[in-house]
Amino acid sequence: MPPFPDSLTHMMRHVLKLHRRETDRLIHEYEVYPGQPPVLFRLCEQDGLSQRELAQRVRLTPATLTVMLTRMEKTGLVERRPDGKDQRITRVYLTDKGRSALDSVGAAIQSVEARTFEGFLPEEKLLLRRLLMQMQQNLNASDSLADE
Prior knowledge:
Layout: H1 8-28, H2 37-45, E1 49-50, H3 51-58, H4 62-74, E2 78-82, E3 90-94, H5 96-116, H6 122-147
Antiparallel strand pairs: 1-3, 2-3
Helix pairs in contact: 1-5, 2-5, 3-4
């Protein structure tokens, strides 16, 4: 049976969908597409990661990341270069356009975040954070039980 429209799970899914749609709308103008901001942020933290390292850090399969990087290269956000010591390794670097887009994307995400939590008291945001962490812990625990 599908979840009822007033179930918490349905409401969370709907809020996340609205959040994602608004974020995607704002970042599109910088030629950044859904799923790409985490790649930009990881490369900002450490430019020149290998594709394998980057895939692990953004929790994508290497194949999915390869498709994403190809698109990001076409729009000029990143470039891939062979490793200087091991030609089997490809490293990913932000371009100047990628660094510029990063600032705008970060601002767009902060804007959506501010709109999302408008009218919330700091204590309410802390409580929500604690509740979400508990939900994540509950679900992670059920994952580890399934692995046993």
